[in-house]
Amino acid sequence: MRSSHPSPAGAFAVVARGVEKYFGHLQVLKGVNLTVEYGKVCCILGPSGSGKSTFLRCMNHLERLDKGFLEVGGELVGYREQGGKLYEMKKSEVARQRADIGMVFQNFNLFPHMTVLQNIIEAPVYVRRIDRKQAVEHAMDLLSKVGLTAKADAYPRTLSGGQQQRVAIARALAMKPKLMLFDEPTSALDPELVGEVLNVMRGLAAEGMTMVVVTHELGFAREVCDKVVFMDGGVVVEEGSPDELFNNTRTARAKAFLGKVL
Amino acid sequence: MPVVPLRHRGRWIFAALLTLLFAGLLTSMVTNPRFQWPVVYRYLFDSAILDGLAMTIWLTVAAMAIGVVLGTVVALMRISKNPVLGAVASGYLWAFRGTPLLVQLIFWYNLSALYPKITLGFPFGPSLGSFDANTYITVYVAALLGLGLNEGAYMSEIVRSGLNSVPPGQREAAEALGMPGHRVMTRIILPQAMRVIIPPTGNQLIGMLKTTSLVSVIAMQELLYSAQLIYTVNFQTIPLLIVASIWYLVLTTVLSIGQHFLERHFGKSDRRANAAGAGGEDEEKDELAPMGNS
């Protein structure tokens, strides 16, 4: 851990200040500010194109920042500060940081040429250098947690979308991450499969896992999240507890969005 | 009510016509004494022919190995973000795909006329040593260089299309797990690209087997040239061409069978999907039993 940032960040899993991001000439993030405390669940809501997924992807450096400050677990993500400037890190250093940040994608992105078990133990064995037998044991524990022990030797293609996403969550957890990022984890699922994935996520939240969830599932946000953030046009428009955001909406834009979705 | 399927009279007529034609062709081949089948049989296992066959196999394997390695390197260069690497790779591809292989072979064969002495070293800088082109660029080296470098150009396109066929989400997922770049390539991207790379590579290999016959122009004693050497002496041109063709056919048949099994191996994640889909999934053990808190 770096000690050159003795900010109150000690208690924060994520600290973002003035994060900006361009795709070509299009500015998708226009100064995003956000803090997430350890052990808390933060949901990011917003219309498509609001920059919420891009912002999430910045948190493990899948997207580069163009300006601003983004710290995860007390470390700048993908950059090193020196003389008031941020220098991009080497790929190997970024890889080391990413190992501590779990990510779950909208389209699962399981490795299709590997079985469920191989998917889960790949990174622990080859990145963390954990003994294979130990990794398999841990993987089986995680599979029982997501209710899929019977599918350990199945290939991802034989699984339903919901099952694939649960495997993807187990795969991310196998690295024992300090923070879990979820990028619209249920958006590619048939409606009847959404529940099983949300159940797994509920279980994680109950265990105290720090999570940042980009989602359209307002019910989940209301019930599970400690903090709800509404983004639009590349900025955080409104944030607060679920009660504040859903029942005492302050901004007109958030009101309009929630009115349409609810 | 009984159902009478449509009768395909046309099919029967065409089948009969083709069978007749084929039978006629076969009888003419067997009965025409000028095919000289006894001569074919006599030379089929001739030691000169078998030596040529061995050389053809060796050339095919070696040139293909050069081609696959070179092709992979060039493909990686082309997708790299380094513009110089990309430009060099494109230039190589442009030159070697843009000129006939026959020309390239003769060119390599005559390289010593262009560079009698080849020096390794830095431009305008110290030399690391030099060697005499005439001694080292033998027929053999010229053949391997010509076939291998040409194949590398084609293989690089095959490898590149394979790499491009892997969805970008795969790389992202692997990187998000903290896997370093080389491991993402060797464990995640390449194995998936294989399914796209293998079938055309099999075609290239079979093509290479026959393309090696081109090196007969630089007097390399492979299968065809061995046959030619014999028929320039005994004038049994057709029988000896048949001998060579029989061996080419045997080899391509063996390779096709090998290709079939290789494709099956790399498509196994698909195959199991079908098998499990047909057999029905055992859902009963799945349904999130431990998650009863919801």
Shape of chain B: flat
Low-confidence stretches of chain A: 1-10
Question: β content of chain B, as a range?
Answer: under 5%
DSSP E strands of chain A, number: 12
Structure explained in plain terms:
The complex is a heterodimer of chains A (262) and B (294). Chain A has 262 residues and is α/β, with parallel strands linked by helices. Chain A is 35% helix and 27% strand. Chain A has nine helices and twelve strands. A six-stranded mixed β-sheet of chain A has the order 8-9-10-3-11-12, sandwiched between helices. In chain A, helix 3 packs parallel to helix 5, helix 4 crosses helix 5 and helix 5 runs parallel beside helix 6. Chain A is globular. Chain B has 294 residues and is mainly α. Chain B has a single domain, classed as MetI-like fold (Orthogonal Bundle), CATH 1.10.3720.10. Chain B has a two-stranded antiparallel ribbon with strand order 1-2. Chain B is flat, with a radius of gyration of 27 Å. Chain B starts with 8 loop residues before the first helix and ends in a 15-residue tail after the last helix. The chains are: A alpha/beta (262), B mainly alpha (294). Chains A and B meet through helix 2, strand 8, helix 3, helix 5 and helix 6 of A and helix 9, helix 10 and helix 13 of B.
Descriptors:
heterodimer, A: 262 residues, alpha/beta, 6-stranded mixed β-sheet, 4-stranded antiparallel β-sheet, 12 strands, 35% helix, B: 294 residues, mainly alpha, MetI-like fold, two-stranded antiparallel sheet, 13 helices, 4% strand, flat, Amino acid ABC transporter ATP-binding protein (chain A), ABC_transporter-like_CS (chain A), amino-acid transport (chain A), transport (chain A), ATP binding (chain A)
Short description, anyone?
The complex is a heterodimer of chains A (262) and B (294). With 262 residues, chain A is an alpha/beta fold.
Write the topology of this structure.
The complex is a heterodimer of chains A (262) and B (294).
Chain A: E1 12-23, E2 26-37, E3 41-45, H1 52-58, E4 67-72, E5 75-76, E6 79-82, E7 85-88, H2 91-98, E8 101-104, H3 116-126, H4 132-145, H5 161-173, E9 179-183, H6 191-206, E10 211-214, H7 218-224, E11 227-232, E12 235-240, H8 242-247, H9 252-261
Parallel strand pairs in A: 3-10, 3-11, 8-9, 9-10
Antiparallel strand pairs in A: 1-2, 1-4, 4-5, 6-7, 11-12
Helix pairs in contact in A: 3-4, 3-5, 4-5, 5-6
Chain B: H1 9-31, H2 37-44, H3 47-79, H4 83-98, H5 101-109, H6 111-114, E1 117-121, E2 127-132, H7 133-136, H8 139-165, H9 168-176, H10 181-211, H11 223-234, H12 237-266, H13 268-279
Keywords (chain A): Amino-acid transport, ATP-binding, Cell membrane, Membrane, Nucleotide-binding, Transport
Protein name (chain A): Amino acid ABC transporter ATP-binding protein
Pfam families (chain A): ABC_tran
